[in-house]
Amino acid sequence: MDPPPVPPPHVIIFPLAAQGHVNSMLKLAELLAISGLRITFINSEHIHHRLLRHAHIQAHFAAFPDFRFKIISDGFPIDHPRSPDHFMTTFNYVKSITKQLFEELVSAPDRPVTCIIADGILTFTIDFAGDLGVPVIAFRTISASSFWACFCIPRMIESGDLPLKGDEDMDRDVTSVPGMEDILRCRDLPSFCRVADLSDQLLQYVTTQTLQTTAARALILNTFDQLEGPAISQIRTQFPNLYTIGPLHSHLRSRLSSSSPSPSSASNSLWKVDRSCIAWLDKQPPKSVIYVSFGSITTLNRHDFTEFWYGLVNSGRRFLWVVRPDSLAEGSSGAVPEELKEAAAERGCIVGWAPQEEVLHHGAVAAFLTHSGWNSTLESVVAGKPMVCWPFFADQQVNSRLVSHAWKVGLDMKDVCDREVVERMVNEVMGERQEEFAAAAGDLARRARNAASEGGSSWDNLDRLIEDIRSMKP
Ligand code: UDP
């Protein structure tokens, strides 16, 4: 009699309940699922409800034979509004239920657990899983450079780079982040570093979570070797088991086109996508539009919103602008200044949520005015579009510096929101320096696609990661 077939490795994937984190960890989950692994994806009820209300997304995940969602609460009722202010409450709530959650998952006799891939900012998972004999691999959704800067916070404190000494200190070079001495000024450090008091709760939290990642069996980053070489080689000295497997969205596309049968790729968007902007783009001349989006959580105050309006209209360029229903900070009215209305109607298109990857690949789009979220940055890199960066918070301050100073594919307007600067930078990127930036962005896009194609560094690293998982005993 033949022995019973060996079940595939079973991986539990556990992201922080926020759009950017769920987005990239779902892509990782799909990459592992199409490689034949059994997946349980832990999702918050609130996000799950918003994600899977679309029939095509339900059908997409149902096409994977061994893919399941495990739904948990994030500590708030399903229809309660969410914002970054709720972060610590959610973190503490999820921490309080994780031990029991893992015990339940690990004791299911039909699905023995091989390992857990947990969001690298939920490092309490490492101890809880360790008690059950299950290894944890950490996944960080930010750039390698931002991760490395956070890892070096204790060195920055020891060397006196931190705390920052006020506004006059912001353009000083940071000397205590090895490998990044030529890139980072104080202004470019993650925004948590902008505190006078080193006991600040968020700074402490980010530092602790980042350092504790070393207790994980391995670390996965959504980047590729040629994009962030200096930071990646430094991180390798602390994390010998490092898997750089990005850009994940491009990697997923390559694997889907070479897998058989091949499920189609799906957008993991939590918002309702307004596709009318594609019809609008179809009517615009090639390379004539600047795409403007500040991601899924950034909010603008009235001053900044108005300055962007004037800057964009005064640039004389066509623009496609994503203004989410919750884009404006409380108390800021969203009205377009009266005197701009005619020009805006002639040259602008506004939507609540765009199919961003498709927009960035559209021939009418020449450049991207972005808040420098890591997913947006990678999507722009893969699409070969130059950027004008207006980083808002967290890791975005580092990413925008990479764009302007390491890769030289755009400009960084960090810490300034002024209509003349917006106008000047948009015109530089779309006009006088367009060829220079487009050539550099095209070169970077080729490298990104090569890394995520068969034989590329990210492709090979994912194969190694899968081998590592297959070698673990459930
Ligand atoms: N996005 C989108 N449509 C929009 C705006 C954003 O699909 O109109 C997606 C974008 O493609 C990216 C994500 O939302 O994948 C934003 O992630 P990012 O890391 O750039 O920023 P965050 O939202 O975390 O600040």
Automatic annotation (TrEMBL):
Q: Which reaction does it catalyse?
A: 7-deoxyloganetate + UDP-alpha-D-glucose = 7-deoxyloganate + UDP + H(+)
Which keywords describe this protein according to UniProt?
Glycosyltransferase, Transferase
What the entry lists under InterPro entries is as follows: UDP_glucos_trans (IPR002213), UDP_glycos_trans_CS (IPR035595)
Keyword GTP-binding on entry: no
> What are the EC numbers?
2.4.1.-
**Gene Ontology MF terms:** 7-deoxyloganetic acid glucosyltransferase activity; UDP-glucosyltransferase activity
Q: Which SUPFAM superfamilies match?
A: UDP-Glycosyltransferase/glycogen phosphorylase (SSF53756)
Superkingdom of source = Eukaryota
Give me the segments passing through the membrane: none
Q: Which PROSITE patterns match?
A: UDPGT
Q: Which protein family is it in?
A: Belongs to the UDP-glycosyltransferase family.
Spell out the protein name for this chain: Glycosyltransferase
Species, as recorded: Eucalyptus globulus (Tasmanian blue gum)
